[in-house]
Structures are given as structure tokens and as C-alpha cells.
Specification:
With 240 residues, this protein is α+β, with helices and mostly antiparallel strands. It folds into two domains: 107 residues, no CATH class; 111 residues, no CATH class. It has nine helices and six strands. The strands form two sheets. Strands 3, 4, 5 and 6 form a four-stranded antiparallel β-sheet that branches. Strands 1-2 form a two-stranded antiparallel sheet. A hairpin with a 4-residue loop joins strand 4 and strand 5.
């Protein structure tokens, strides 16, 4: 006996391929008050994808995974056959440990996690300009301020690893690893304010590695800048 409905692809992978071939980006009905850019809210994204997913025998659930100072949304795609696929979204820093602050970070995490899992975009594509604007006019050669001993050791380790990564990026698999590393480093070592994110971006090792992505793997670079833009938005919102 099978749970597969007639007309559904037999596997979750077949359904996902078919779904992503038809699924469009959601309509961006909301305005970010800080950047004046349009975006789609989580509820609008869910409304946009629920019907097409159902037509392909799929649905989803999301789990919130808490780290020390961040939240990640794990999106689990579920197929009518019983197959599942778990995909981790980007980490979103929690800057205000209140119900409102945690709830806001969870919403960000779910929104970006679901869009990442389904290959759609919820924000206007500005080719990374919004994130780049954060760092314009900043002295990228100026060293960061003195940190606590523990954090300083972590940043030294992060900088050393980035220096190794920056020497060369041989293929897309390595580019994926570079993006994951830089996103993780930004989440964990950039501090709790927008200014500290800017300082992290000013590290020569960071810029060197990001430049390699920009020159050789533009799509990976856009993925990195989208993550930094989301992180900047959460930091600025938390500090407002």
C-alpha cells in the first residue's frame, strides 16, 4: 500500500525538482523602514508556497535551533511518500534576549530558511549593494578595537583560517565552503552591533577572501552579501 497520490512524483527529490521549476518568487508587499526596500513577510511566503507544494505532494515544518547567541531555522521538507529532507538555514543573531527580540530573530530565521530551502527570494535583489553600502567610506585598514581575551583568541583563529581560505578557491565546492565559513564567522565573531560587523568586514583576510568570491564565483558572492545584509538588518533593528 502506498501513500502516494496519483499524479505526484514518486520521490521527494523528483517533487522538489518539479516544484522549483514552477515556483516563482513571492510578491514583495512590505517595506523595510531602515533601507526602504521591499520584502515579503513570512506569512506571505508561506501563503505563496503552500499551494504549489501541495500540488507536488509536499509540505514542510520548521524547527528553531538555538545556539549561544543566535537562532537557526531547520526546514524539513515532507513528501507524501513519507520521505523527508532537512535543510539548515542561515544563523540569525539574537541581540535582545527578550520575547520580542527572540521572536524577531526566529521570524528572520524562518523566512530566510524557507526561501533558501525552496530556492526563492523574499527580498529585492540589489546585487549586494545594500550590504556593500554598510562598508562604504570605512577605513578597512584600521585594526579592530581590543576585545576580551576569549573573543580575541576566537578572532585570531578566524582570521588565520580566512587567510588560508583566501589563497585560492579551486571550484564551486570550495566556494560553498568559503561562503559557509564567512557567514558563520560573521555570525559568531562580528560582535553584537552593526559597527562591529563593519569592523569584521574590514579585516584584510576577510576582504581578500570575499574579493576572490566576487571575481571567480559571483553567485556565491551574492549569497554571502545577502547573508550579511540580513545580519546587518537584524543588528540595526535590535539596536534601534
Amino acid at each position: 500500500m502506498t501513500t502516494k497520490k496519483v499524479g505526484y512524483p514518486e520521490t521527494i527529490h523528483q517533487s522538489l525538482v518539479a516544484l522549483r521549476g514552477e515556483l516563482s518568487n513571492p510578491e514583495k508587499k512590505s517595506i523595510n523602514p531602515h533601507f526602504k526596500s521591499k520584502y515579503a513577510k513570512l506569512e506571505d511566503i508561506i501563503h505563496h508556497v503552500r499551494g504549489p507544494m501541495s500540488e507536488h505532494g509536499m509540505t514542510f515544518v520548521q524547527n528553531i535551533v538555538n545556539e549561544e547567541a543566535s537562532i537557526m531555522a531547520q526546514t524539513i521538507l515532507i513528501h507524501a511518500s513519507g520521505e523527508t529532507m532537512s535543510l539548515d538555514g542561515p544563523a540569525v543573531r539574537i541581540d535582545k534576549f527578550t520575547a520580542q527580540g527572540t521572536g524577531s530573530a526566529a521570524t528572520y530565521a524562518k523566512r530566510y530558511g524557507l526561501c533558501s530551502a525552496l530556492g526563492i527570494e523574499s527580498d529585492e535583489d540589489d546585487d549586494g549593494n545594500a550590504a556593500e553600502d554598510t562598508f562604504k567610506g570605512k577605513d578597512t585598514k584600521k585594526p579592530p578595537p581590543k576585545k576580551t581575551d576569549a573573543k580575541e583568541k576566537a578572532q585570531v583563529k578566524a582570521g588565520a583560517t580566512a587567510d588560508v581560505l583566501a589563497e585560492t578557491i579551486a571550484n564551486e565546492e570550495e566556494a560553498d565552503g568559503v561562503v559557509q565559513f564567512l557567514c558563520s564567522t560573521a555570525d559568531n565573531f562580528s560582535g553584537t552591533t552593526e559597527g562591529e560587523l563593519i569592523e569584521w568586514w574590514g579585516y584584510p583576510e576577510t576582504k581578500k577572501t570575499a574579493d576572490l568570491l566576487d571575481q571567480g564565483y559571483p553567485e556565491h558572492y551574492k549569497q554571502l552579501m545577502a547573508h550579511l545584509s540580513a545580519l546587518r538588518a537584524s543588528l540595526r533593528e535590535a539596536g534601534a
